[in-house]
Amino acid sequence: MKIVIQRVKRAQVSIDQQLHNSIGQGLLLLVGVGSDDSQEDMDYAVRKIVNMRIFSDAEGKMNLSIKDISGEILSISQFTLHADTKKGNRPAFVKAAPPEMASNFYDAFNLALQQEVPTRTGIFGADMQVELINDGPVTIILDTKNR
Questions:
Q1: Is 105 among the catalytic positions?
Q2: 139 is a catalytic site residue
Q3: What domains are defined for the chain?
Q4: Catalytic residue among 79, 105, 109, 124
Q5: Has 6 been annotated as catalytic?
Q6: Which pLDDT score, from 0 to 100, does residue 146 have?
Q7: Active-site residue among 39, 80, 129, 139?
Q8: Mind listing the pLDDT tens digit for each residue in 98-147?
Q9: Which of 6, 12, 55, 78 does the annotation list as catalytic?
């Protein structure tokens, strides 16, 4: 899994110019499922995301997790995180999971997150418009294959 984690003041996703979901303070996740991702990858990602201390405490140090601040998550599927740009000018997406596998994996990932933190999502495979107010900005890239 490749996940871009962004600390946000607020975020929202619209589909066909209609608001689909929104959150207040929390994390916006752009989630790419790879063809070789496993339950172990999912468990690792969920554990890291809900416990990562990237929110400021009273002294201004990044010392609090999303759980500590009672924040929310907006999770957006994004297969393009698995783009291979080594050859030519058109990205290849052969490392991205096939749509059915990715959809099921993404749904399970979001259910696991929901058990820990209020989690909202976009719609898998939809053309979405995502808006956010970055907080910091703090942006972290999590690759479950690099641990």
A1: no
A2: no
A3: 2-141 (3.50.80.10)
A4: 79
A5: no
A6: 95
A7: 80
A8: 999 999 999 999 999 999 999 999 999 999 999 999 999 999 999 999 98
A9: 78
